[in-house]
Amino acid sequence: MSDDVLDDPGLLAARQRFWTRVLTDDRWSSSRVVVAEADSRIIGLAMSGPPRVPEAGIDAQLLVLYVAAEYHGRGAGAALLTSVLDPREAAVVWVVDPNPRAQAFYRKHGFVPDGRRTEEDGVAEIRLSRFPT
After folding, report:
1. Sequence-ordered alpha helix ranges (H) in the chain
2. What is the pLDDT of residues 23-52, one digit of tens each?
3. Intra-chain end-to-end CA distance of the chain, in Å
4. Cα–Cα 20 to 30 A to 69, which of 39, 46, 92, 105?
């Protein structure tokens, strides 16, 4: 994401409002949220739920998956992913483009680009899909 998005002074308050809704509003009750911990601190977070836009054949959408940079490549991301997405579900995830590391991670876990793209507020994303085998 661009520095303008990350440096926005309202970003923290907006994220706090988002997570308060996710954790308390019934509309998000079917979402799955997990955290990864190491050394008594949260080092990662993942969330999945129903697709934001219902679509035949798609069961779930990975909405969030973040791991602290110092823990990249150590298994936390894979553990978070498998904790929030059932491998028997057809799932999608939108990934910032370009973001070769994240895209490689999702490809390693069975996701492939499905040709959908979007751009909003200067942030381009591609959609990756994974179907049960």
Report:
1. 3-6, 11-24, 76-84, 100-108
2. 888 887 889 999 999 999 999 999 999 998
3. 33
4. 92
